[in-house]
Amino acid sequence: MPRYAFRIEYHGAPFNGWQRQIGQPSVQQAIEEALAKINPEEPRIAAAGRTDSGVHATGQTAHADLARRWQPFRLMEALNHHLRPLPVAITACAEVDEDFHARFSARERRYTFRLVARRAPLVHEAGLVWQVRNPLDLAAMQEGAAHLIGRHDFTSFRASLCQAKSPVKSIDEITITEQPVTGGAEFRFHLRARSFLHNQVRSIVGTLERVGAGAWAPAQVAEALAARDRSACGPVSPPHGLYLTGVTYPDDPFA
Amino acid sequence: MPRYAFRIEYHGAPFNGWQRQIGQPSVQQAIEEALAKINPEEPRIAAAGRTDSGVHATGQTAHADLARRWQPFRLMEALNHHLRPLPVAITACAEVDEDFHARFSARERRYTFRLVARRAPLVHEAGLVWQVRNPLDLAAMQEGAAHLIGRHDFTSFRASLCQAKSPVKSIDEITITEQPVTGGAEFRFHLRARSFLHNQVRSIVGTLERVGAGAWAPAQVAEALAARDRSACGPVSPPHGLYLTGVTYPDDPFA
């Protein structure tokens, strides 16, 4: 059976996350049901990142095995047709080798978190960014983030329900940028790692926001990490500022 | 009575435009009702641009006279509180002289139109940009737009219901930029003029889109303008890609 890789965008709001669960809407179910419209049996689809409820994606990657061979552009068009009107879109599609696995072949995941600091409510980007009312200090957040780069035990920064066998992960990048918006500023956190723990990105951003607000000193991020204790973490940021933006494989399936 | 100027953002979708109309939701009514919560009588508010149904704003400017003097930041906060949960936000507020008039003192209005060309549906920016499925040629659109710069009779590019006394207007700028988006490109049209006719921006963008698609030659834009005939215009673009981004006054009230 030919295997296809898909690059997928979705709005997190209407879904209880990527992963299929009985009685809850999921992105996985939406795509599997669209695939079932064009395939004799409903295929299973495996994704690089099992994003949480409310988390967005612009570069999720997944694969599925289909009964017959498709011209990739036609397959993408057919799926987008059957996905309507859900906020899920296939933006690239390619036939891949049978040893390609969207989850297990992935070498790197990239996430971006959008955080806007301003007093007035957001009207166009409601649901697309996390808004706080207090100003934030970029340099302090960058100083706090520096403590998290590299290989560490991230017990303090993972959900108590996290199922990963080990809390040790390597974070390769946390870049924070600032750009002005009317009446405030938008901060974008770009994180890159081979893989992340459950709630790791949102725990890191929620903690760094406290640093930016002046409630935490930057050095307290290092203390929280060293504590290896979930209660040492800052508040977990809400999901609607988080985007899975890309996944890297040894060979880019969409190149 | 002290006079206040307001810079206003709104999402166009829930409103039948800026201007108050019986039995239709309008941005003007929303703000006047918020003002009535903090002022003994409901004040009238006058805006620089009477945007159409569905059109967005990031820099609308308006003014109103209030019964008592306010600290501008507190006035902004009070109005944003009473505007909730409507997608309308006051992003700046200032006391101005009694001879300031948001509409009649305005020297320049600026609009931006967002147009995305790609096959896959948009999931995060649905309702915030106009999407077309065909690719667009930036250079051809720029060549077509050049014919519209300067002082012309824009009869071909205004709504048949337009109430302006004269169809002669001066367009000072039409800049078109292109940036890549996943699976396509976003084009932003920046237009600047002392004032615009009813539907003028949307008529221009809709016509230039036809040029970008290759359906019109760039020189046909000049022919359409010279025809001084509404039927010579291309299709009017939908409202949800259009933003009133700013208004210029002899003295910036928010400086």
What this model shows, in words?
2 copies of one chain form a homodimer. Chain A has 255 residues and is of the alpha+beta class. Chain A folds into 2 domains: 103 residues, Pseudouridine synthase I, catalytic domain, N-terminal subdomain (Alpha-Beta Plaits); 139 residues, Pseudouridine synthase I, catalytic domain, C-terminal subdomain (Alpha-Beta Plaits, 2-Layer Sandwich), CATH 3.30.70.660. Chain A is 21% helix and 31% strand. Chain A is built from 5 helices and 10 strands; from the N terminus they run E-H-E-E-H-E-E-E-H-E-E-E-H-H-E. In chain A, strands 1, 2, 3, 4, 5, 6, 7, 8, 9 and 10 form a 10-stranded mixed β-sheet that branches. In chain A, helix 1 packs across helix 2 and helix 3 crosses helix 4. The mean pLDDT of chain A is 97. Chains A and B meet through strand 1, strand 3, helix 2 and strand 4 of A and strand 1, strand 3, helix 2 and strand 4 of B.
